[in-house]
Amino acid sequence: MMINLDIRLVLFDVDGVMTDGTIYMNEDGESFKSFNVKDGLAIELLRSHGLYSGIISGKSSPSLEKRCKQLGFDEIVMGCKNKQPKFQYISEKYNLKPEQIAFVGDDVLDLPLFDLVGLSVAPADAHLLVLESADWVTELQGGKGMVREFVDKLLCLQLNLSLSEIYHPLIKKIKADDVKQLEQ
Predict the structure, then answer these.
(1) CATH class of the domain whose range is 9-183
(2) For residue 56, what pLDDT is reported?
(3) Are 38 and 145 in contact (CB under 8 A)?
(4) Terminus-to-terminus CA distance in the chain, angstroms?
(5) Which of 15, 44, 74, 166 has its CA 20 to 30 A from that of 50?
């Protein structure tokens, strides 16, 4: 697999990527989404290696906003159907070339960004047009740990490290945090 090995920012669509695309609604119209907790650690892993992360989602909801804040994304853009202007703003804000940015998307609304970024990624169950356009297709489906799968493999390739080596800074930080808590 030939990929750009200078990725500094990873942007994600949400529905169909971080979730399986299912939206649960109650009688009041309130919606609920199911996120895979394994994917959440991938965002912390990116941060531990100095990479930025963010979401550009076509949908907006209180549950999405809460989850994104919990994960500590550097950029949170919701309710955005035309993702190109926000992408442009984010790349300029971080002073990054488009080729230093990866975007993970699953549906046709994501295709315009696929043409702009250095690395376009799709979950295994993405729309056929997205699968055909993606530089990288994960083995896992959206909402089933595909974000973690992608981040693990990206960091191993980009940093030329083993899986255990890419987790070392994160584990070291967790151990240091545990010691700090014991000392208080």
Answers:
(1) alpha beta
(2) 95
(3) yes
(4) 48
(5) 15
d(CA 107, CA 96): 25
DSSP codes, 80-111: -SS-HHHHHHHHHHTT--GGGEEEE--SGGGH
Distance CA 62, CA 60 (A): 7
Token pair 């990206």 is found at 154
| pLDDT at position 96 | 97
| Residue 3: predicted pLDDT | 62
H or E element, residue 121: strand 119-122
SS3 119: strand
pTM score of the predicted model:
0.90
Tracing tokens 């529905």 back to the chain, one arrives at 15
User: Are the beta carbons of 81 and 87 closer than 8 angstroms?
Assistant: no
Residues in the chain: 184
Q: How many CB atoms lie within 10 A of CB 99?
A: 15
